[in-house]
Amino acid sequence: MLDFTYYAPTKVHFGKDKHKEVGNIVSSYGFKTVMIQYGKSSIKNSGLYDEIVASLKEHNIKIIDMGGVEPNPKISFVRKAIEVARSENVDLILAVGGGSVLDSSKYTASGALYDGDVWDFPQRKAAPQKAIPVGAVLTISAAGSEMSSSAVISNEELNMKRGYNSDFNRCLFAICNPELTFSVDKYQTACGIVDIMAHTMERYFTVCPDTLLTDRICEGLLKSVVEAGSVAMDNPNDYDARATLMWASSLSHNDLTGCGRENALCVHQLEHALSGEFDFIAHGAGLAVLFPAWARYVYKANPGRFAQFARNVWDVTEDDDEVAALHGIEKMEEYFSSIDMPLRLRDFNIDSSSTARLAELCTFGKQRTVKSYIELDYDKIKDVFDLCY
Amino acid sequence: MLDFTYYAPTKVHFGKDKHKEVGNIVSSYGFKTVMIQYGKSSIKNSGLYDEIVASLKEHNIKIIDMGGVEPNPKISFVRKAIEVARSENVDLILAVGGGSVLDSSKYTASGALYDGDVWDFPQRKAAPQKAIPVGAVLTISAAGSEMSSSAVISNEELNMKRGYNSDFNRCLFAICNPELTFSVDKYQTACGIVDIMAHTMERYFTVCPDTLLTDRICEGLLKSVVEAGSVAMDNPNDYDARATLMWASSLSHNDLTGCGRENALCVHQLEHALSGEFDFIAHGAGLAVLFPAWARYVYKANPGRFAQFARNVWDVTEDDDEVAALHGIEKMEEYFSSIDMPLRLRDFNIDSSSTARLAELCTFGKQRTVKSYIELDYDKIKDVFDLCY
Predict the structure, then answer these.
(1) Which of A12, A330, B36, B91 supports an S-S bond with B6, CB 3.0-4.6 Å?
(2) Among B88, B175, B94, B192, CA closest to B140
(3) What pTM value is reported for the model?
């Protein structure tokens, strides 16, 4: 087991109608001026926006409206939001939405208290030293960003999607009402399921030995998500299934599933290249295509670990590790298929020649390798992309 | 699934030699005057005390020595420590030890900033509104107090052992080096194993339905502790086994194992009466005696849950729920026996007539009932004590 630091300070308010307590929660910290970030008009149409505003106004909190965050959120929007946050003396950023809105809010929060340009953070030119606190009202179970230290942003001028980790990216609080996810459509629900599973599997598939407890937690989380995911796909209004997915999304990415191991999130690096280049590809769908291909490419480095995954998550019974490992990968792929996820890159109608460009992007122009199970350089990354074309 | 709030803000520094970083960690928060609470001379004999002092002094931190915390810590000690903390303007209390030292430190921390008497907190006459921060250097894996909101104290004048929960009881940071537990003897190691399991099982055995993910996490944690516990008993210097127990102790009691369910810790209430009355009984040993008896007394209220426990933790294969449930309880008892825990109250050489007195104490003189699986009044509690005599 490797040494680790575990720090997940986000206070999670989980349950029915919890979003109606937002005014009470925000004022308990003494905040006065709140910037609400959100995406399109869906939270206005559903009435959620009005409920949140009403609860905040009851506590005399000033609201700065900052709607319009796009999926794969853009740095240009963040720069605008930073200006507003500064000029309005915003003391809390409330992200109402999912991973994209949280990413945008986190960049705004640390960027607003930084003298330079916020793109410096993902470029590793600077690390945030402070940030405006961020609170979340979650509307989709997927990214786990409400408890995570990570934030990803797209720079549309440079055609790059980049992330960085910082404890300043951890939300102060998260309001998680599973009912708010009843209206998430089947496709986005499935993308979320894959994202939650991927956050867990990325941390599970390392070559660090002796992580008994973390292994059992990962396997239990994956089994729960597989079971609840199928239920939620069939019955979008099943509260307990939606609740399981929502809580799993937070736990999958708050580092609990990685304690004592490396946390490289290698397949995510490949996927960021994919959805960075092709903006129309949903992150979860990209992961569903990439994960089985990556698994088949790397499993031989330690078939025992994939065999354990197969036996403890998918109830595979074969004794031979290699047979079991491959069977487990098949089961994962079949599950993704059962929730209507694409399985091949060509399903996105992109050209087969794109794989070279994707490998180029993923390696920052052959400047880096990525590593979880085995180290992947440009050629190997291109192999993985080719394998899943 | 019930609504819940999850808040586990403690920053955990986990791994080899981590205690040597204590000065760096403490000074990163800006603390200047640290009260060190600890038990007997063992941390002085082992050299741990000197290492901690050296690290703190390197960072020019003033040290207030407050050794002498007893097992089942006493309110008289806490009252003395509160006086010292006030007069010395202590800004951090560093608990070096296990559950008892943490309990004492937590009471000191909230008591020092409270105008009344600290016994008001467990009496529910007042709740802390602030507290001096508490940091922990853990030397035994058992109580999970380093991440929990609970603190228990004995009032020797009133012959009472009482606890209360508060977010002010949550440690600011915890330094967890599994190597510091190599020297914990077999008996205390076993008591710790039982305590970790009990914290998890208390939360697992409720009648709240639909807690899929929390169930899987509990089962995974229990399986890990059972496996690592046996290894640590055979080989006290096995780092990975000790590390698994240490991390499990924190997770078992930081509320992760109870999300979405009631958290009554019923058997703990019985045990507090037992070790409150008989100071020589170790908490974990008391739990080892009480848990199987309690389980046999209550399982019929919902055999399915005990059957699930039997199948998913102990690999019991019987189809019939009642048969499986009883088999699972047997397996638990056999495991406690395998790590040399007492199984009967008479093993403590106490009189069989004590059970009435214990039931009296547990119910605060027939003033309350306790409830997890089923509600237990004075008569039923006496039944459980009788059952395990």
Answers:
(1) A12
(2) B192
(3) 0.97
